[in-house]
Amino acid sequence: MLEGGATSRWHARLTLGLLLAPALLWLGALIILPHAELAVLSFRERIAPRHYAPSLAQYKTFFMEPLYWHVFVHTAVMSVIATFMTLLLAFPIAWVIAKLARGRAGSLLFIVCLIPFWVSETVRTLGWMILLRESGVLPALLVKLHVTAMPVELLYHDATIFVGLVYSSLLFMIVPLVSSLESLDNSLIEAAYDMGAGGFAILRTIVIPHAAPGITAGCIVVFMLTLGNYLTPTLLGGKNSQWFTEQIYAQFITRFNWEQGAAFGFLLLGLSTALVVLGLRLSGQRFGDVMRRT
Amino acid sequence: MSTADLVASAVVKRFASHTAVDSLSFSVERGSFFSILGPSGCGKTTLLRMIAGFLAPDSGDIAIGGNSMAGVAPNRRPVNMVFQQLALFPMMNVGENVAYGLARRGVKRAERMRRSAAMLERVGLSGAALKRVDELSGGQRQRVAIARSMVLEPTLLLLDEPLGALDLKLREHMKIELKQLQAAFGTTFVYITHDQSEALVLSDHVGVMNQGRFEQLGTPQDLYYRPLTPFVASFVGANNRIVGRCTARHAQIAEIATADGWIIHAWVHGTVGVGDAVEAFVRPEIATLARAAADLPADQPRHGGEVQSVLFDGANSAVLLQETKTRREFRISLPQTGLFSDLKPRDCIAFGFDPARAACYPARAGSAGQDA
């Protein structure tokens, strides 16, 4: 009997282990191992060909060089603004899907939001370039409507990067917002309305507090995607877009300075972690609660 | 008649082809407890939502406290509502819930907290202000929902079946509590329910609603003892329903024969001629039981039956008989004296009732021939 119990417990453990194996492998081989390697890389310095010594030189370079600093802060600020803009745009859409559209109309709207993601990100971004470049569709339209005398270059501005970033992250904001707004009981809204609240007061006192975990979850996902985005800032912002991922790319690929690139990678990881923690603190949310909502 | 807090005049609401509220007019006196009683789908929720302002009537007018409410939004009406699922705000504590409406009116924080604490004390929840809503029991939540509305001193408090979600024991308790709260506040309550016992216990006046209209509007006693229509007779209180034809009239008493040949007598309401299809109703408590037919009052028609089952329920105990000739089911309340406590299935027994207390109506369209 005793032996039987032990065997079945061992079986249960084996089952659990096998079920977790793919996830653990994925986590270990694709996330922990490369990061460990990058960490080692970032904390060494080449003193002679094929000779390396442990050092903090890579991080020192970052803090001493104003250009790197500037790009770092610029990326962070732009990502925060892009996340906020995505939230402002996604909220009304999520509200319509969750509360106003009934049955099929709601799922149809959801699919409309999803359709652009059937096309690869590169192609989507190139589509924006076709629309916005000097000889493109939108500048030509502006000339035709006599808004501008000459076609204007709409690419390579910060605003252009925002358009691309917001466009590519909208869905990741809409999904958690819809699920958190759907769970909001309509009678709470009616009760607030009944007790004298107007539209804005209902939004502020009922809807936003209820949707807070969904809002935070969406913001975290969108912020991380934006901060780590390489394609959109490079294609729409051009060479002067000053996105931090471009600096990492340049160190690894152009300069062959893997040590510097690894250090930058860790700095970006630190930045996103710090900003997410700050965001959670400011909104009074807990990470676990937020992740359960997504 | 004293001042009316709520006056509805010819209110109509249609949804597509279905008329939910059909040209309804009534008024509710200040300080009274008014119930709208009806089965689900009768239009009572639609009516309540029109009073609250969430729906606009297609025609007709609703006046509250003497002012027409046409075009007035819910947040500007002197009306508050206790929702079916209460709709307490889970993101706020109890005190903030009660103070919510005051905050929307721009009452200062300290004053708001003072008034919400005073209101919580009035409903017996002093000291609960800092609790979370989900820490309260069902009955306490009920009281918070009422306090949250009453703190705004509305002209009219609307209650949308607020006891529906509670279990039976708590419901009985909250019924009494609601009546006491209403008496203490003196506010006009408009209460909707499908539970006839809630309506009878709580109300000063009840409107029995069916298919968008009031079948009868009156005191609970009126509805119970003097129902005007067969719908009210069958919906309010327990009743034996007997369908048949009028075979003779002796002044207001009709002689009624069922299709299978049982003859009973009942008081006529409305116009019933000999040969007309009728519905008769006999309340279980007006019938008297006797071991032998000779023991029944001499002036009452006598019937016989066989006990089918004894339904023991304390003070509400009854016996289910089968009438000897037709095997029709007939329910009779057992007397409180315990006189018939030894009845067993298949016992034969005599019964009779005063025809003047049984009611007979012209049969409703489409209901003839069906038995309840």
Topology record:
The complex is a heterodimer of chains A (294) and B (372).
Chain A (H helix, E strand, L loop, with lengths): L1 H41 L1 E5 L2 E4 L2 H8 L1 H35 L3 H11 L6 H12 L4 H8 L13 H25 L3 H9 L4 H29 L3 H7 L6 H11 L3 H26 L3 H7 L1
Antiparallel strand pairs in A: 1-2
Helix pairs in contact in A: 1-12, 2-12, 3-4, 3-7, 3-9, 5-10, 7-9, 7-10, 8-9, 9-12, 9-13, 11-12
Chain B lengths: L3 E12 L2 E12 L3 E5 L6 H9 L6 E6 L2 E2 L10 E4 L11 H11 L4 H14 L15 H13 L5 E5 L7 H18 L2 E6 L2 H7 L2 E6 L2 E6 L1 H6 L4 H6 L4 E11 L2 E5 L5 E6 L8 E6 L4 E4 L11 E10 L6 E6 L5 E5 L14 E6 L5 E4 L10
Parallel strand pairs in B: 3-8, 3-9, 6-7, 7-8, 13-20
Antiparallel strand pairs in B: 1-2, 1-4, 4-5, 9-10, 11-12, 11-14, 12-13, 14-20, 15-19, 16-17, 16-19, 17-18
Helix pairs in contact in B: 2-3, 2-4, 3-4, 4-5
Please, could you describe this protein's structure?
The complex is a heterodimer of chains A (294) and B (372). With 294 residues, chain A is mainly α. Chain A has two domains: 42 residues; 238 residues, MetI-like (MetI-like fold, Orthogonal Bundle). Chain A has 13 helices and two strands, in the order H-E-E-H-H-H-H-H-H-H-H-H-H-H-H. In chain B, 23% of the residues lie in helices and 34% in strands. The radius of gyration of chain B is 25 Å and the shape is elongated. Chain B starts with a strand and ends in a 10-residue tail after the last strand. The relative contact order of chain B is 0.11. At the A-B interface, helix 8 and helix 9 of A face strand 6 and helix 2 of B.
